[in-house]
Write a structure and sequence with these properties.
By secondary structure, the chain is α+β, with helices and mostly antiparallel strands. The protein is 36% helix and 19% strand. Bound molecules: ligand DP6. The site of ligand DP6 has 15 residues, from helix 4.
Length: 334
């Protein structure tokens, strides 16, 4: 029986994290970001005492676990080392990751994994996910694994404040009040599979080479403020407008990098056009896009049936995933 089980879900950024402060591997961002945690595709982590540290992953469809290849270990080792500095943990730990989604589907499975890992270590350290101070620490731990993971500790809408301190102690995610209960998200899986350039690599390239990068940093802080204000006002249209503009700005930064980062496909752009056409007809629909080809349509219930019929006709082969805002990291029964 494991010592601890914990789970967490992926999150989708409405104003994106794209750019780290120079130096170090602590995933300290250049700007704030703001996300919504999803109601599906949770990853569960089980921790067991072991002779030495071991990271195991199971395939999403179940089946036997396998050790993570050495080249992928550094972020896990970073999280473990930081947790051991804070808390009295067993000298050897076996962590088993049980995802419900293949990482290659590009829905930020690593955010769910590192958030669940940080949550499990926090609980094993004798802390509780219901204490804000412990959650803050867990968010920092998750960030060391993958930046966007720090937002998945919380459910609903979440803002990652970039912080200023070089030790990263003020760079963590903060939950925002629950609003817009009707918000729905429709993922169009145009091209499942691993993206050509990872987010980690892509954002380093943009920071180093894209002339638009200084503009992007200002833009993100403004978009986060505008989206947070829209949330406070329960104003879906303003939220959607800023989220879509932020995603397009991210891809402008990517296209202006050297060599260019081209994540969108012609089909991706057709989805942006569809959303614009539907908005012109009065339907509440906006699009966001991470560093990959699969758009996500932010919408309200009156648009759902129409979206399904239009997308089904345009892309009969593409799976459509209906998602909603969901919960943060959880302590699961053993
Ligand atoms: C486009 O969090 O995966 O999804 O910190 O290097 O692990 P690392 O990057 P990661 O980047 C996410 C990029 C994004 C935008 C976002 O989720 O904010």
């Amino acid at each position: 029986m494991p010592l601890v089980r914990a789970s967490a879900a992926p999150n989708l950024a409405l104003s994106k994290y794209w750019g780290k402060r120079p130096g170090g591997a602590a995933n300290l961002p250049v700007a704030d970001s703001l996300s919504v945690t999803l109601n599906a595709f949770r990853t569960t982590v089980e921790l067991r005492a072991a002779r030495q540290d071991l990271i195991l992953w199971a395939p999403a469809a179940g089946g036997p676990t396998a050790p993570l290849p050495d080249r992928l270990l550094p972020p896990y080792t970073r999280v473990l080392a930081a947790a051991r500095r804070d808390w009295d943990l067993p000298p050897g730990l076996e962590a088993t990751f049980l995802p419900t989604l293949e990482p290659a589907q590009g829905l930020a499975g690593s955010a769910a994994a590192f958030a669940a890992f940080a949550a499990a270590l926090t609980i094993l350290g004798g802390r509780s996910l219901s204490h804000p101070e412990d959650l803050r620490r867990a968010s920092i731990l998750a960030r060391l694994g993958s930046g966007s993971a720090c937002r998945s500790l919380h459910g609903g809408f979440v803002r990652w404040q970039r912080g200023e301190l070089s030790d990263g102690s003020d760079s963590f995610a903060i939950p925002l009040p629950p609003v817009l209960p009707d918000l729905a998200l429709l993922v169009v899986l145009l091209a499942p599979g691993r993206k050509a350039t990872s987010s980690t690599e892509g954002m380093l390239r943009s920071a180093a080479t894209s002339r638009l990068f200084p503009w992007w940093i200002d833009r993100c802080n403004q978009d986060c403020d505008a989206i947070q204000a829209a949330l406070q006002a329960n104003d879906f249209a303003t939220l959607g407008h800023h989220a879509e503009a932020n995603a397009l700005a991210l891809h402008a930064v990517c296209l202006a990098s050297t060599p260019p980062l081209l994540y969108a496909t012609p089909d991706t752009l057709r989805v942006f056009q569809l959303a614009a056409d539907l908005r012109a007809q009065g339907l509440p629909v906006y699009v966001t896009l991470d560093a990959g080809p699969n758009p996500v349509l932010l919408h309200l219930p009156p648009a759902r049936a129409r979206l399904h019929s239009e997308l089904g006709a345009l892309f009969p082969q593409a799976p459509l995933l209906d998602l909603w805002p969901g919960d943060g990291a959880r302590h699961e029964p053993r």
